[in-house]
Here is the input.
Amino acid sequence: MGWRRQERALAVLLIGALGAWEPACAGPNLWTDGTSISTGHSNRGRLRRPAKMPEKGPGYEVPQTWRSRGNVYGVEELVAAVARAAHAVLNRSEKALLGVADLSPIAGGRSRWHRSHQSGRDIDLIFYAVDDEGLPLDPPTTEMIHYDAEGKAYAPRRTVYTETGWERRRFDVERNWRLLESLLADPSIRIQWIFVSEGLRAQLLDYAVESERPTWAVEYAKVVLRQPADAPPHDDHFHMRIYCSRTDRFHGCVDRGPVWHHEKKTFKYSGAERYDPVRWRMAMALPGLAGFH
Ligand SMILES: [Zn+2]
Here is the structure.
């Protein structure tokens, strides 16, 4: 459009003041507050003005392999929520260090590693691990380690790890649950999926029930923790996907798949979520909005 930023900001103010906002007037990314925007689907989408996951922060780091890939970009609320959750786990256990693997490329879109991860709303989180004496271990630097249903590290057929001492690793059910609970409790994101293998899912839920974690957290986890049917079982990391934020939906961010009850009812920033995915999709199909996404 060639507009300067201030003019755009002024236009937003004017339109807001007049109450004249109409979806048909808003092309993708035309009226924005300058924050990140996720557009399209998680497996066919883009990312604008992304937030970058810092290489390290309190309680987390992006290990070397994933740092060098450069898929360290996401929507702001996702990056911030993961940093907060890792910090929360660290506060409860001194040595906990979360390994943050891939988010999205800087502008989103396809990458050679993932079908999804295209619109800044997906993130891979490496499992917390302990050694055989229960002491926390740092995340692996070169590759993810697989865990069986008992939480023991194993090498799938034809896999040769370069990571030394991998055999000593155990799935750290306690810290992995704490991470999940922090993410589930974060009001700035709404989680659609956390992919994880059946065996590890069962361990996490059993742990949560035994240690009397809040019922809402257990029930929420039961809904979003899934072993995907059409992808690897995820016994080496969590893959988390969040829903489009309310504002990003106006810029063409599209959710696919189930919309959980909690997503419809939860609040973001303030006020009730008014988004109705069915009606919105119908609106997207109207001729006036052609080319919107
Ligand atoms: Zn993933």
Notes: Confidence is low (pLDDT under 50) at residues 11-26, 267-293. The chain has nine helices and 16 strands.
